[in-house]
Amino acid sequence: MARFETVFAQLAAKKQGAFVPFVTLCDPDLERSFDIICTLVDNGADALELGFPFSDPLLDGPVIQAANNRALQARCSIAESFKLLEKVRSKYPEIPISLLLCANLIYAQTLDGFYQRCAEVGVDAVLVADIPLLACEPYVQAAKKYGIQPVFICPPNADESTIQGVAEHSEGYTYLVSRAGVTSAENQSHAANLDNLVERLKAHNAPPILQGFGIAQPQQVKDALNMGVAGAISGSATVKIIEANLDNHAKCLDELAAFVKTMKAATL
What we know:
Blueprint: H1 3-13, E1 18-24, H2 30-42, E2 48-51, H3 62-73, H4 78-91, E3 97-101, H5 103-109, H6 111-121, E4 125-128, H7 137-145, E5 149-151, E6 153-154, H8 160-169, E7 174-177, H9 194-203, E8 209-212, H10 218-226, E9 231-234, H11 236-244, H12 249-265
Parallel strand pairs: 1-2, 1-9, 2-3, 3-4, 4-5, 6-7, 7-8, 8-9
């Protein structure tokens, strides 16, 4: 089985949900980013969702925009990001790794070149934030050619056609967005119809559902799991810890470790 399938099966057998932190690769620089990612895994992350530094992110709010800027200011290129991924995969051969990025970064490498490099460094899945279902076929074909699982977002206002398309095209997991807008740990409001979306995605045999956007507290992880999703993704709340401790790396790692442990405990 692929890594995501293996982890979800293991968690289901233990009656646990998944906690998946998001960080931007090379934030605040390549060396510290590796320490940060290792800390996330070592303290209970079930999988990783990682972003490529980009000057014009689509879904990211101020916190993750700042993370992108820090990584770019540290002169972290796509090549360096792939080197970091290779290093992470070498240390953690079993952890599922998903990338979340914009299409321009893929297009600049060519579809074949990008997905082939993903396969070489051990990436499991790729979510392209700004490719709608109606334009997804070339990306899906390139991903599958190299054994990479394509992942799609189910927005809170999705109609039945969109839900079906997301379910049918996604592999590894399905990304359920909690609410409209951009990423933010401050905006923790969630759409009222999420439980209905979960039921409809499952009716179309969607891969395990991970809920993201505004997940910053352990209770939100519990609420998401009680609604029937397989786990929760936390990005802005994770990245805020990095932002708050740029001048104290040891404290940053300690706070990240505590945060991941607390959020993972909510899945038990």
